[in-house]
Amino acid sequence: MKTKSLPFFATTLDIRSVLQDVERELAVRYVRVGDVEPSGEPLAWSTSADIPDLGVASEGDQALERALLVLPATEEPRTREVPLRRGGRRIVVDQTANAASVMLRAGGVLRSGVLIAGQVGTVSEDPWAVQAYGTIARIIRRVFQKTKSYYVGQEALQQLKSGARLTARVRSPREFDLVAE
Length: 181
What we know:
By secondary structure, this protein is an alpha+beta fold. 22% of the residues lie in helices and 30% in strands.
């Protein structure tokens, strides 16, 4: 499998705008990656407007931020059991169990003046996943501005120009941050 991914910086408004465009082209649903709810049901939304805290970072590290799977609207999210080292098991939703999916980490505003990078990608060769990734990446490339190796949303770009810190990890040295050109 070949991994496809696109890193970006986006505020809530930036990422919602992209996903609204995606929703006009593809019938999708969004599912929270990770442990399922105690009820056994994954957290899922039929529209990006319903996703709480979209574009709000909580961890300060791109790799640790909440992730969503973008699935076909008609596809029920699949779960899988993960055995724990000390016994027992966890029930999780992830891309391994859902080949027809794209992973989205929106990143976003950690606190005033700090934006954490987001990323969209897929490791799947499923035709729907390849098409959906292509659609999302095309929309991001069209509406965000390319700055070094990142695509930067309009609001995020304004924050960068105003001196905000755009970084993949808040604990990384500032020399690794994206800087205005």
